[in-house]
Amino acid sequence: MTTEKRPLKTLERVLSKAGIGSRVEARSWIHAGRVKVNGRVVQNPDQWVDMDRDRVRFDDQPLQQQKRVYLLLYKPKGYLTTYKDPEGRPTVYDLIADVGTFVSPVGRLDLDTSGLLIMTNDNQFAERVTNPQSHVPKTYLVKASTLLTDAQLDQLRDGIELTDGPTRPAGITRLRDSGKYTHFEITLTEGRNRQVRRMVEALDSHVLKLVRVKIGEIAIGTLPIGTWRELTRAEIAGLAG
Ligand code: URA
């Protein structure tokens, strides 16, 4: 006997996954009566929807017609990678207000990290890029608070024991030592929370500056800080593998 598996999701999730808005926004739009399922307004965000059978419309537009959008943002430090901050601090959404489509960040950068952040409404693409099995390399420039020895850089290169397990081998290049600081480049194929900072802290040093300069083959190039551009087709294909 086969059990039929239907693609059931809550209405709130269907809307946010379609790239229409955040989950909080989706709930408020559903409550406001802007969403129809099979021609009838549904105001319960937790209602189950069968994506194979049910027809969902937002402001009388079918969800499927959302254009896929892929952005590359050069995030400055001091901006949160979240939609809204209860403390009112700036977020990456302040920098992409002119995009006109709701996009979600592909992974995260810490408040104090600057550099490349991809944002998209294509959830499959986002999952592919963030999945550790995909091994998409991400490269960071790091300024450490101490001079690091070759042996310490080897530790970063070979893998370091963190509280959530050993890190995978990393690409490490010493760039320069200036006064009391070592500047180096690190390429990771996993994206754990605060990973670079925690790796450097495991060497009894800490990160003074962190910039993500490359995702896969995509580099900052001439993109000015605080601005965004669309990814090219080749860049999207390169990451989507
Ligand atoms: N590693 C970190 O520690 N922080 C980031 O923002 C990205 C990678």
What attributes does this structure have?
241 residues; alpha+beta; Structural Genomics Hypothetical 15.5 Kd Protein In mrcA-pckA Intergenic Region, Chain A; Alpha-Beta Plaits; 3 domains; 6 helices; binds uracil
Task: Write a structural description.
There is one protein chain. The chain has 241 residues and is of the alpha+beta class. It has three domains: 8-62, Structural Genomics Hypothetical 15.5 Kd Protein In mrcA-pckA Intergenic Region, Chain A, CATH 3.10.290.10; 70-132 and 218-240, 2-Layer Sandwich (Alpha-Beta Plaits); 137-215, Alpha-L RNA-binding motif (Alpha-Beta Plaits, 2-Layer Sandwich). It contains six helices and 17 strands. The strands form four sheets. Strands 7, 8, 9, 10, 13, 14, 15, 16 and 17 form a nine-stranded mixed β-sheet that branches. It has a four-stranded antiparallel β-sheet with strand order 3-2-5-6, with no helix packed on it. Strands 1-4 form a two-stranded antiparallel ribbon. The structure holds uracil. Uracil binds next to helix 5. The site of uracil has 8 residues, from helix 5.
Please provide a brief summary of the model.
With 241 residues, the protein is of the alpha+beta class.
SSE layout:
Blueprint: E1 8-10, H1 11-17, H2 23-31, E2 35-37, E3 40-41, E4 48-50, E5 56-58, E6 61-62, E7 70-75, E8 104-105, E9 114-120, H3 123-130, E10 138-144, H4 150-158, E11 161-162, E12 165-166, E13 171-178, E14 181-188, H5 195-201, E15 207-215, E16 218-219, E17 228-230, H6 233-240
Parallel strand pairs: 9-15
Antiparallel strand pairs: 1-4, 2-3, 2-5, 5-6, 7-9, 7-17, 8-9, 10-14, 10-15, 11-12, 13-14, 15-16
Helix pairs in contact: 1-2
The chain binds uracil.
